[in-house]
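Throughout this chapter, every protein is written as a compact record of paired, labelled lines. An example of such a record is reproduced below:
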Amino acid sequence: MQITVRGLDGKGVIASVQPYFTVLDVKELICYGSCRSSEGSVSKTLHVPPPYVRLIFGCKQLDDNATLEACRVKSGTTLDLFACYLSSTQVYVQMDWERISSTRRYVPQAWTRQNGPTALHLRQWIAANCALDEADIALESSGDYLEDDFSDWESLLRASQESSIIVTAYRFADVACADVAISVGNDSGGREIFQGSREVLNNIPFFNAALSQPKVSIAADDGFLLGQSYVEVGNLDVRTFRNVWSAICSEDLCTLPEKLTADDLWDVFVAAEQLGMKSLRVVASERLQELMANTITPDNVASWIATARVCGSASLAQAGLAFVAKHGKEVLLSMAAEDWSSDLASYECIVVAALQHRHSFSGSCNGGA
């Protein structure tokens, strides 16, 4: 669908988006000309970084994490772009580990120095917002490393040609010691390169096996570091791997972002199984069981049970079958139009759970007559 975004000059920009795009996706699309989904396009880029602007619809500021569908934005809708109030107390952070095309993404919100005076406070804030360990983050401005006790932010403003303070955050895992390039996705659905360390990746069975093969070197003119090993993960989408990557970059190899939907967690669960990340699989399973009570429905329970069975999670499969036992008729009706010929074992399991409840109910009625 197409929407119009009125820029700071009052002129409209046409953006091609999807209902599942977030408000932040639209901001990045307007800024960079691309966003995390390859389906987005824009008639003109405004080069205004996302933290600097708000998107307004119906006199209401839209939340960055909300989808366009949730905000009731439909094809033909016009959104207004307003500049945030720029203040010398605000610091805007670029994330070197996340990029749109070749441009570093920003942490969507600005850091306000009222929340802490030093670079250490800023590192802690970035860690909380990006689900990272603060010890893994390094900060620099205009090529100069910022020590934890740094607090002279006004000097950065004076030295910069920008109207605000911009700091770049790096992860230690992504600096020059990164010796493995990981290609994720495909050309049709979007492809992204992740820079990793062989020392870390060897702890993950999939990458350990891939890196034990004869080394494939990458030439510098391909956009990678000279001599890097190359691993391709073509069977996972980029969005899912980003969540898995946050776990790979964590100290315990299983720390996930807090705000993941049930669908996100199922994708991570399947990915963890494929990559051999047992601890991550356990964490995803535990989070799913916590969410099940509020997210499981007759329309999705069958696919959840099938996925749990394929990945060998008896606890998730049993939780799904317990729901089927209570809502057998609705579940079977939702499955009627689906083709289960490729997984007859799961189909039989679900049908038996639904019918057993029905027979039990009928028997108790007859026995009491």
Remarks:
- DSSP finds twelve helices and 15 strands in the chain.
- Residues 218-226, 359-369 have pLDDT under 50 and may be disordered.
- Residues 340 and 347 are 6 Å apart (CA to CA).
- The chain has four domains: 2-83, 90-174, 180-295, 296-369.
